[in-house]
Design goal:
Length: about 400
């Protein structure tokens, strides 16, 4: 008997679909056809299984035990737990995605045998072949539908209330119908996730940094408005979105995020938010949180320096709204920020082994560099406060600081 196999039968034109229909009705060939989930096929094709001429079999993704067994068989040995987990969370049992990822990662030598089984190291590359494969699964989508997928990709799980305010409702419904997103109820409202992890990976890879920043900004703005059913946003999540968005820095957003992270004992994240809040012009609370988190994370010298310089600026230099520090190796680069938002490079401090004594280098605006210099005491080493006063005396035009 003749065997006719048709992949992606939903792509057939009307004439080809009619020919396939006649082949089955006249029993002229054995027909195997595949149809992608969520796609609509010509009526002459759907009639084949609706009228009982063909048997329809809905294929489900592999279960986790079946996935692990297939993975071990393909690779020819034991697979490390971390490697298997990572592949599972990326593919969710989709054998086609698994095959493509294994092929490219083996070729790139990122998937290698180790002491405890196969190991997958490094970041996965989004190759053109993998992107094309995922794009084929997503299918051609209008811009409005693509916007829905992209917004969910950068902030999943995303509140449905936010999504509806940012996009077209019909586009959201189309995405759900095609399995491009999933919507699940929770006690605090409905949450939206991308239909498959690789959808998010591919859409993000295609978007570019500028577009991703703009998308995060749209979500952050929608969340901050506090309108609708979603209520007040989680301050940490809002801070993360804002930090990586194209929105102008907002000291209030970052100080709330720092406060929230500190309350949850996420010291590293609290320190990051507090540092940005200080740089944005936040007040005393941000300085205190930054000092505490630096001390708790084993960076006591940095915490002490930040606190001392901020206190000295408030006491002696009212034209400065805040002091910004940037640490690199054994150096601390000191900038002042005026009430008008102007940043002034002041000096560089060198750690000498004591939090009380710092090597001093003045910033030379004409040369755009730092030069080792002497303090008014005649020594190249002194307190951080003396160094700040010396530099501010020059750049804020107050020679009394040198007497």
């Amino acid at each position: 008997p003749v065997l006719v196999a048709v992949d992606d039968v939903h792509l057939l034109d009307d004439l080809s679909a009619f020919v396939l229909h006649q082949l089955v009705l006249r029993r002229a060939a054995v027909v195997i056809a595949t149809l992608r989930s969520g796609e609509s096929a010509p009526e002459t094709v759907t009639a084949l299984w609706k009228d009982g001429h063909l048997h329809r079999l809905d294929l489900q993704p592999l279960s986790r035990p079946a996935f692990d067994a297939l993975l071990a068989r393909v690779l020819g040995g034991r697979v490390g737990v971390a490697c298997a987990d990572r592949l599972w969370h990326l593919t969710l049992g989709n054998a086609l995605f698994l095959r493509r990822i294994l092929t490219q990662e083996l070729d790139a030598h990122r998937l290698t045998p180790g002491r405890h089984g196969w190991e997958w190291t490094g970041a996965m590359a989004m190759s053109e072949s993998l992107i094309d494969l995922v794009d084929a699964q997503i299918g051609g989508v209008p811009d409005a539908v693509g916007d829905v997928i992209d917004l969910v990709s950068v902030a999943e799980p995303l509140e449905l209330d936010y999504l509806r305010r940012m996009t077209d409702r019909e586009a959201v419904e189309a995405c759900e119908h095609r399995g491009l997103i999933t919507i699940s109820p929770t006690p605090h409202g409905e949450l939206v996730r991308v239909g498959h992890p690789l959808f998010a990976e591919v859409r993000s890879a295609r978007s570019g940094r500028v577009r991703l920043a703009r998308l995060r900004g749209r979500i952050a703005s929608a969340a901050q408005s506090g309108e609708g059913q979603a209520g007040a946003p989680d301050p940490i999540r809002l801070g993360r979105l804002w930090l990586d968005s194209d929105l102008a820095p907002d000291a209030d957003v970052f100080i709330r995020a720092a406060r929230g992270a500190y309350a949850r004992l996420d010291i590293e994240l609290a320190s990051r938010f507090a540092e940005v809040a200080v740089a944005t012009g936040a007040g005393l609370e941000a300085h205190l949180i930054l000092a505490h988190t630096l001390a708790m994370s084993g960076r006591a010298e940095q915490a002490s320096l930040q606190h001392r310089l901020a206190a000295r600026a408030r006491e002696r230099w009212p034209d400065l709204a805040t002091i910004r520090l940037r640490h690199r190796g054994g150096f601390a680069y000191v900038n002042g920020v005026t009430d008008h938002g102007e940043t002034i490079r002041l000096c560089r401090l060198r750690y000498t082994g004591s939090a009380h004594d710092w090597g001093f280098a003045i910033y030379r605006a004409g040369h755009a560099d730092y030069a080792d210099s002497f303090l008014p005491t005649g020594s190249p080493i002194g307190s951080a406060e003396d160094a700040l006063d010396t530099a501010c005396g020059l750049y804020l035009n107050d020679p009394t600081a040198w007497t």
